Amino acid sequence: CCPLESRSLQFSRLLQQEERAPAAPAPPPARHLFSDPAEVEALRRNLLAWYDRCKRDLPWRTLAATEPDADRRGYAVWVSEIMLQQTQVATVIDYYIRWMQKWPTLQALAQASLEEVNELWAGLGYYSRGKRLQEAARKVVSELAGRMPRTAEDLQKLLPGVGRYTAGAIASISYGQATGVVDGNVIRVLCRLRCVGADSSSPAVIDWLWDMANVLVDRSRPGDFNQALMELGATVCVPKSPLCGECPVKQHCQAWRRVEKDLAFASQKLFGKAAPVPDVEDCGLGDCPLCPPATEPWDSSLGVTNFPRKAAKKPPRAMRTATCVLERRGCHQAPEYFIVQRPSSGLLAGLWEFPSVPLAQDLQEEKEREELADHLQAWTGRPVAAKGLQFIGEVIHIFSHIHQTYVVYSLHLDGDVTLDPALSPSRWVTEDEFRASAVSTAMKKVWGADPHLSVSGSVSVQKVLYMWSINQGTQGKGEIPPFLGHGPTLLDSALSILLPCWVGSGLIWSHPLVPAHLGHARDGISMVLAPGLDWRRWGAEGGGLQHCTTAAGPCRAAQLSTVPGYCPPRSRALPGGQ
Ligand code: SF4
Fold it and tell me: Where does the signal sequence lie (predicted)?
């Protein structure tokens, strides 16, 4: 096979031929090319017709189609494209609406504070995106007189944080520039359309895909075409179970053709007809840099999901951080919590969190407590006893490249605390203020891990175990076994360790997973742990199930008794005398 560079040249020539069409004769079909202008036309037509019929109604699409002011239109598309990077459409919609209501123009955004931007962005992840968007808006206002650059080249050159993809999307959608775009969805669709099985994250393949996107983009409706290609990847040509039967471009799809050939071959074999093995392993050009490597040929069981292929990702780095929910009584004895601001660069830059300290891996618990106590002492300016820290549990949060474990403690402070202005910004907040602050999703999880803080909302297994441990008076005595994992894994692990001692201690754990014979255990506290369980109230005096709801509605005694293995408590009545 010819080297990739020369194929790129070939591609460019085809592009030129297409621009000069119809004079140039169609080049011979090649597996990785769209070399037939008639096919390109048909693909554009089919894709756009499907998009017109099936596109999702999204707020940024409405703005892009209806906003007459070119700068506002470009800004509206820009915000959506930045928010959509690495984030699902369903998540973005609400953030987008609130953002555009608050800052409908570049000028409004340029006047906002970074704190306001972070507060609105909180929970959307990849926080530097909001910060960079605001910096770039300020630049457009101060250096470009508020006028958005109109071409992909200028957008990329002049706006910080705007890369090739975002520039192409803004220019094509807002300003009608006939330029292609390549994002994750487009990579998947194009790799399948043209059986590109080489590492799709390699620069050579990415360049090839950009060339292909530029050839394909519809000259009269470039913005719609680009959105259609991305929409196809998001709703039909999805990563795991693509809906090829409903695909508007399946007749142009080489991967689909390959599957059809496999099926035809299998059925011929079934009926005993001798048939040659399909010659579709590569494009027929020998050692092709775009075909799957010879060591990983087409796998029939994967079908079209043979494409795209990526080099194995590096596993995320494991990090451990001790964090403390520091609480005091504020005005009118209302609880307040201490939060500090993270540095202005790096992970979660500028966001607020409970005071936290990174830990070395495999540190003894005693050492972890001491490190956290020292850290808290620096914040509060008074001695903090490591033993006084109450262990809450562990919260795991996966960042794109970090597997972060927060070891959560809590501590109640009496009296006033003087905050040191020489340290990073810090403040005391009420629960409502905490929720409205620029805190990360990870910190919201930490908040949810503390049963004192979050008596409503979905309960975590750790929280229930912690409740149990408080009630049993084992907290702080080192009797809580280490539980690993989340969800069902954690539950299994917890049950396998705890059930024997609960039987012995007279505690009943009522759950479909609990074997029926445990129903004979002495009653104590009964809990039902079910998916979506929502503990509304946990009794402050000695614990006890007072009221709970499941995803299916309020959980009453009659329903509890239908849970296999459930044994109604004898000495402790449920609310309402049930
Ligand atoms: Fe994707 Fe299947 Fe359509 Fe090909 S036919 S583009 S694999 S959905």
Answer: none
